[in-house]
Design a protein that fits this description.
Distance between the termini: 33 Å
Structural class: mainly alpha
Largest sheet: 2 strands, antiparallel
Number of domains: 1
Strand content: under 5%
Length: 268
C-alpha cells in the first residue's frame, strides 16, 4: 500500500535496508516515515501498520456507511474490521515483504502469516456480511483480495500498482463497500463520495511519494534559495520534508476527525 509505481519512487532500484539507510541529519536516527518508531520488537509492528494512513483509509469506510439512510453499527464495525485485516495488516505485510521498504526486523514467516491471516479474516467477515446483506456484496468480496494481491505483488505488469490503482483500491473502494454493506445496493451519493475519496488519495500520493524518496533514497541535499529581499535560505532534507509531511499529518487528522463527526452524528 505504501509504495506505488511512480517515476519518483519506483522499485527499479534496490530498497535501502535499515542498516545503510540515509540519515536526515548527522547523529539523527533514520526513520522510514514520520510515524515510524525505533526499530525492534513491538515498535516494528507499529511502523508496519502505518497508523495515520490506516486510520485515514478506514475513515472512508465510515463515510460510505454514514451515507446510508439507516446506519447499522454492527455492519459498520464488521466492515471496518474487514478493511483493517485486508489493508492495515495483509497489504502492509505484503508490501514489507517486497524489499523491506520500512526496514523492520519482523521475520519473513511472520509477515507471510500476517498476510494470509489478514486476507482470510477479511474474506470471512465478507462472507458473514453476504449472509446479511445479500448478493450485492459478492462482487466486492471477490474484488477486495484481488486488489490487495494485484497491487502489492505488482501483478499484470504492475497495471494496478499505480497512483490511479492506489486511489481506486484504498480510496474509492472502501466508500462503496461500506455503503453496499449497509444498504445492499449502490446509489448516486456514495459514487460522489467515492470520487472524493479517490481525489484525496491522489493528493496523498502526490505528497507521500516525494517524501518517501527523500527519506529512503536521498543521502544528502545541499542548496540554498535566494530571497528577493536579500539573504538566502539553506535547503536540506528537513526543509524539503517539512511541508510534505506536515500536510500529510494534517490531512490524516482532518479526514479521521471528519469521519468521527459523521459517525457520532449518525449513531447518537
Amino acid at each position: 500500500m505504501t509504495d506505488e509505481l511512480n517515476p519518483l519512487a519506483s522499485r527499479t532500484g534496490p530498497e535501502i535496508p535499515y542498516s545503510s539507510a540515509p540519515r536526515l541529519q548527522p547523529g539523527t536516527e533514520y526513520r522510514s516515515a514520520f510515524y515510524a518508531a525505533r526499530p525492534g520488537g513491538w515498535r516494528d509492528w507499529w511502523t508496519l501498520l502505518h497508523p495515520p494512513y490506516t486510520a485515514w483509509h478506514l475513515s472512508y469506510v465510515v463515510f460510505g456507511a454514514c451515507l446510508a439512510p439507516h446506519v447499522s453499527l454492527s455492519r459498520l464495525v464488521g466492515t471496518l474490521l474487514a478493511f483493517l485485516c485486508a489493508v492495515g495488516f495483509a497489504a502492509h505485510a505484503l508490501d514489507e515483504l517486497h524489499g523491506r521498504p520500512l526496514g523492520t526486523r519482523i521475520p519473513t514467516p511472520a509477515l507471510v502469516a500476517v498476510t494470509v491471516v489478514g486476507l482470510a479474516g477479511a474474506v470471512a467477515l465478507g462472507i458473514a456480511g453476504v449472509s446479511r446483506v445479500g448478493w450485492a456484496l459478492i462482487p466486492f468480496l471477490v474484488l477486495g483480495p484481488l486488489l490487495v494481491l494485484a497491487y502489492n505483488l505488482e501483478l499484470v505488469g504492475g497495471l494496478v500498482h499505480t497512483d490511479f490503482g492506489f486511489a481506486l483500491a484504498w480510496g474509492a473502494f472502501p466508500v462503496l463497500v461500506a455503503y453496499v454493506a449497509q444498504t445492499g445496493r449502490l446509489a448516486v451519493a456514495p459514487l460522489f463520495a467515492a470520487a472524493g475519496a479517490f481525489a484525496l488519495s491522489v493528493a496523498q500520493r502526490q505528497l507521500s511519494t516525494p517524501a518517501r524518496l527523500i527519506r529512503r533514497r536521498v543521502t544528502a541535499v545541499e542548496g540554498s534559495a535566494a530571497l528577493r529581499t536579500g539573504g538566502t535560505i539553506s535547503i536540506d532534507q528537513k526543509w524539503l520534508l517539512a511541508p510534505l509531511e506536515g500536510a500529510l499529518q494534517a490531512m490524516s487528522w482532518g479526514v479521521v476527525l471528519s469521519a468521527a463527526s459523521f459517525a457520532i452524528a449518525r449513531l447518537t
